[in-house]
Amino acid sequence: MQYTELERSSARHRASLSAREATHLLERPLYCPECGFKIGVAYSDCAGHVRTKCQKCKTVSILNLAYFRRAGKKARLATGKLLPVLEDD
Ligand SMILES: [Zn+2]
């Protein structure tokens, strides 16, 4: 998909807003069920299912975030990155 400059600007603005909103949320890491590699981060307001691909073993997993709700000791405040990680399907 080719973004126009206006679409790119709008997408960056929304990503920046999203990052700012997440600064007060807790993060919890998600790990690949096959190899244990960290495959993403869920925020404390996350709900529903996500599909993610492990960058190490290439396994595609569908995770119900309700099963990964426990924050535990590793939960921490969001780092407030300005842009999300973009991945292709
Ligand atoms: Zn993996």
Q: Can you walk me through this structure?
A:
The protein has 89 residues and is α+β, with helices and mostly antiparallel strands. The chain has a domain of 50 residues. The chain contains one helix and five strands; from the N terminus they run H-E-E-E-E-E. The protein has a three-stranded antiparallel sheet with strand order 2-1-5, with no helix packed on it. A two-stranded antiparallel ribbon has the order 3-4. The chain is globular, with a radius of gyration of 14 Å. The mean pLDDT is 83. Bound molecules: zinc ion (ZN). The site of zinc ion has 8 residues, from loops.
The biggest beta sheet reads:
3 strands, antiparallel
Portion in strands: 25-35%
Structural class: alpha+beta
Strand order of the largest sheet: 2-1-5
- Tell me the helix content: 10-25%
Brief digest:
The chain has 89 residues and is α+β, with helices and mostly antiparallel strands. The protein contains 1 helix and 5 strands. The termini are close together.
Notable characteristics:
89 residues; alpha+beta; three-stranded antiparallel beta sheet; two-stranded antiparallel ribbon; 1 helix; 19% helix; 27% strand; binds zinc ion
Draw up the topology in text.
Layout (H helix, E strand, L loop, with lengths): L4 H17 L4 E6 L6 E6 L5 E5 L6 E5 L11 E2 L12
Antiparallel strand pairs: 1-2, 1-5, 3-4
The structure holds zinc ion.
The site of zinc ion has 8 residues, from loops.
